[in-house]
């Protein structure tokens, strides 16, 4: 390939990537609606992308790459349907075929199709892990292999999971539409839960790309459902947590919020989140409250300068709507910062009565920190040593050991 | 789409208080029959009345009792004709046994045409 040819190939690849970012989901979503065939829809788009890589460097990039991709994918889908019809001599696919023929050629927003697709991928009749996999595969366009890698399973296992999910959609009659108003709020909650699960998976593992993907999904939901306060709150929450990514881990060690170098927090993401949160709703859900807590941290110069009473108030509000012992634990830590170590200890002991927290290393660690701040280093050491025993990971054990060592040599 | 709605007695749920929102089975039947959503359905006698039939190695085995040892048992069924799973879920959610037991929806294989 000569110099000009190579340049043309690079330009074509870039134009294709741009057009796919914008258009892939629209094409897949509308082809699933018109054909009812998920694999056909995904294959038709891959096929169009392949054709673009062949013809664009040679014939030039079309004036409207997105329209070119849509038309090419549709033509492919029609070819496949027509061939299936001839082979089987059946008319079953004719209706689908006619619908594809009538599909809009213009690029009018087909937002409804994208939303239909998202709600179907996140339908509660599918197992949670399948909802996550299907969303990443069909909505985000990740490869089966990449999704498998992120969730530490093989490509084959992930492929099976996706196949079973698609089969259930077809056989159980899971509809391809935006749910009716009476169930819409809980279905939206279900979609947000899938996106947040993708995010926390990226947060917990080294698969940082999953966190980026979750934020991309969050942006899409905000664009498609501008009236959903919780969708906006979830995006803000993820941006705030993600803004700390470079301060959270130093040399492989997790750094707690208190000790993070706040100059390494990404201001642009914090600002974006705070802008999203400016439009406040009267009735706040769990994401809005958690975003509020994260925003208080993001606005403080250090742990000491943090508005802890505001954080305690938010945890109080959160514990009204979420039954989580971890929320009660975090509230106790915030009370310790707001009202002093003794008040924090009292709150911690009442939170620790929850059987779900029995023998939890985080309770022992929090107890150690509060006792130390209350001026009781011997008692603090006992609690931290207990936390070392209970710690589930090597990394946490190492950090707690270090904390114990500090207490031994005052 | 056709669904079988299995009405399951679940000992864990039998002490749940009735949910006043969904406590009238007569209403449920009338409403869904009128709407053409419920094609048929009935209650079944309890599992003590069950007879299990198996043919193994050319021999017919007829035994007393249900085919599976389980604390849950099927107390009845309804056959629903619905647009899709969401409609079937909405109908099942209005059945009194959604509060006092467990309901299972199973799609029929489509008719071969």
Short description:
The complex is a heterodimer of chains A (410) and B (113). Chain A is mostly helical and 410 residues long. Chain A has helices at 3-35, 38-59, 65-88, 94-102, 111-121, 128-139, 144-150, 155-172, 184-204, 208-224, 229-242, 245-248, 267-278, 286-298, 308-321, 325-339, 341-351, 361-373, 377-390, 394-408; strands at residues 249-250, 253-254.
Key phrases:
heterodimer, A: 410 residues, mainly alpha, two-stranded antiparallel sheet, 20 helices, elongated, B: 113 residues, alpha+beta, two-stranded antiparallel ribbon
How does this structure look, described?
The complex is a heterodimer of chains A (410) and B (113). Chain A has 410 residues and is mostly helical. Helices cover 73% and strands 1% of the residues of chain A. Chain A contains 20 helices and two strands. Chain A starts with a helix and ends with a helix. Residues 105-110 of chain A have low confidence and may be disordered. Chain B has 113 residues and is α+β, with helices and mostly antiparallel strands. Chain B has three helices and six strands. In chain B, strand 3 and strand 4 (59-64) form a beta hairpin. Chain B is globular. The relative contact order of chain B is 0.37. The mean pLDDT of chain B is 91. The A-B interface holds A 123, 125, 171-175, 179-180, 182-183 and B 1, 3, 82-86, 88-90, 105, 107.
What is the string of SSEs of chain B from the N terminus onward?
EHEEEEHHE
Mean pLDDT of chain B: 91
The rounded Rg of chain B comes to 16 Å
Q: What assembly state would you assign to the polypeptide chains in this entry?
A: heterodimer
- Given as residue ranges, the uncertain stretches of chain B (5+ residues, pLDDT < 50) are none
- Tertiary shape of chain B: globular
Radius of gyration of chain A, taken over Cα atoms and rounded to an integer in Å: 26 Å
Instruction: Count the DSSP helices of chain B.
Output: 3
Going across the biggest sheet of chain B, name each strand in turn: 2-5-1-6
Helix content of chain B: 10-25%
Distance between the termini of chain A: 70 Å
Low-confidence segments of chain A, ≥5 residues, pLDDT <50?
105-110
Order of helices and strands of chain A: HHHHHHHHHHHHEEHHHHHHHH
> Major sheet of chain A: order of its strands?
1-2
The largest interface is: A-B, 11 and 12 residues
